[in-house]
Amino acid sequence: MSLPVKLGFVPASRTLFDQELAITVRDDVMESLRAAGVAPVAPGPELTANGLVQTPEEARKTAALFEDSGVAGVVVGALNFGNEIPAALAALGRVEKPVLLFGIGEEGRLTRGSRRDAFCGLISIATALRHREARFCFPRRAIAYPRDFTDAFAEFARVCRAVDGVRGAVYGQIGPRPADFESCVFDEVSLLRKLGIRVAPLPLSTVYSRADSVAEARVRDTFADMDGTVNRGGASDLELSRMARMEVTFEDIIAENGLDGLAVQCWTSFQDDYGISPCFAMARLTERGIPCACEADVHGALSMHLLSLLAGSPAGLADWNNRHHEMDNVFSAWHCGVFPPSFSSGKKVLDMHRILAESTGVEEGKRGTLELSMDLGPVTMLRVTENPWEGWQVLLAEGEVIAASGEPFGSNGWVSVDDVDALYAEVLRGFPHHTAIARGKVGGASVVASYFLGLEPVTPLSSEEGHLQIGPAL
Predict the structure, then answer these.
(1) What is the percent of the chain with per-residue pLDDT over 70, rounded to a whole number?
(2) Which residue ranges does the chain devote to CATH 3.40.50.10940?
(3) Where is the L-fucose isomerase C-terminal domain positioned along the sequence (predicted)?
């Protein structure tokens, strides 16, 4: 997740305006992009006149450069009035990517001499993009100086990383959803058509069979790593070995199928037929950037994937579980034991799936959940879903993990939000019981990423204002 995002930069200019001013500020923008952690790709003077984009032919060359370089998004800067047609052609190319527009302010008070007129020119570039039904965003202050755009560039890079990562992703579905959980149904063809996401189904029987034949050396290494990173609680060597085998098996399946995430039927076959709960292995893979959703929740895996790319850190899957008994706007973000270990700097203990153990009266085969309490601090929650009346939507909310009375088993964080009732109302109106959750506040970037993915954001709570604004609703 730490590799710089490649962004194309279109230095939009008109030949009628001062070329030296445009050339100088072009280099300043490149420095601002690098300061934002971006790897900028822009035409140089060997490709276009002065390294600017001013004609349709220069736009064609620039678009080809972006395509060959594999950029995840494009920033278009009106360095002066800018020529809107070449700017739009260069930005969109043959494959549409997220686009950010900005313009450069004047050097000082207006005179009869040299001037930029980017304030007006950026409107023309936006108009050309609207004519082509293209989505775009822009900074909250769209006309400024290169150093003023660094935060907006950094947020746009997160958006582009997320959009590029989710489009065309491949998720493995290990086993069918639990029969009683209609909440986890999804339309595979609709997901493919909307986001190009493909789902690779894998039978549980195949997974169990493969786990019995993985290389013993890898099992031993994974066993030792597991043993060194968690309090084993009552887990035996045999049970921990089975967890290690399953992690190695998941790794092989992910590599062979080019998977970006997993949605696992984590109960009850795993406990009855393989003798463990797979939660700890799933949590460790999530920690390493491969989101693993519970209960074969494919949309849950998508939500975790999208949020982890936006946050730049792992996202867990939680139930909207329980309202706090004393604190009105606090609820439990909880699951049986599959949160990524980095969610807690405190005690982490292997335990058993207590709901299954208590409901069946049998503890055997239930161990493998990860008990932890989330560290205090800000969090973002995100859930993608599809329903027949609103289409594709994404619920976004920010909150704060706080200290609160009550000690649920499993993985848990007590989350304080502005208005639990408003949040809960939106969940009831259109979302299932699972949400992705990640540390930090990225609600602003999440809204912009949703826009570029064609998902309607649902935001029942106030959130920190991001650095970007979205363009036209298409």
Answers:
(1) 99
(2) 5-166
(3) 335-445
Q: Is the pLDDT of residue 1 over 60?
A: no
Decide: 197 and 109 in contact? Cβ < 8 Å. Answer: no
Question: Position 436: which residue type?
Answer: A
Q: How far apart are CA 223 and CA 225, in angstroms?
A: 5
pTM: 0.96
Name the H helices within 312-436: 354-360, 420-430
Q: Read out DSSP for 63-120?
A: HHHHHHHT-SEEEEEESSS--HHHHHHHHH-SS---EEEEEEPPSSS--SS----HHH
Asked if residue 385 has a cis previous peptide bond (ω within 30° of 0), the answer is no
Q: What angle do CA 258, 173, 292 make, to 5 degrees?
A: 75
Portions of the chain given CATH number 3.40.275.10: 170-470
Binned at pLDDT 50, 70 and 90, residue 3 comes out as confident
In angstroms, the CA 361 to CA 394 distance is 39
Strand partners, 200: 172
The predicted pLDDT at position 2 comes to 65
**Residue 242 phi, psi (nearest 5):** -65, -40
For 417-449, give the DSSP string: -S-HHHHHHHHHHH--SEEEEEES--HHHHHHH
Q: Virtual CA dihedral for 196, 201, 202, 204, nearest 10 degrees?
A: 130
> Which has more confidence, 389 or 378?
378
CATH 2.70.40.10 holds for 170-470? no
What CATH number belongs to 5-166? Answer: 3.40.50.10940
pLDDT in tens, 226-244: 999 999 999 999 999 999 9
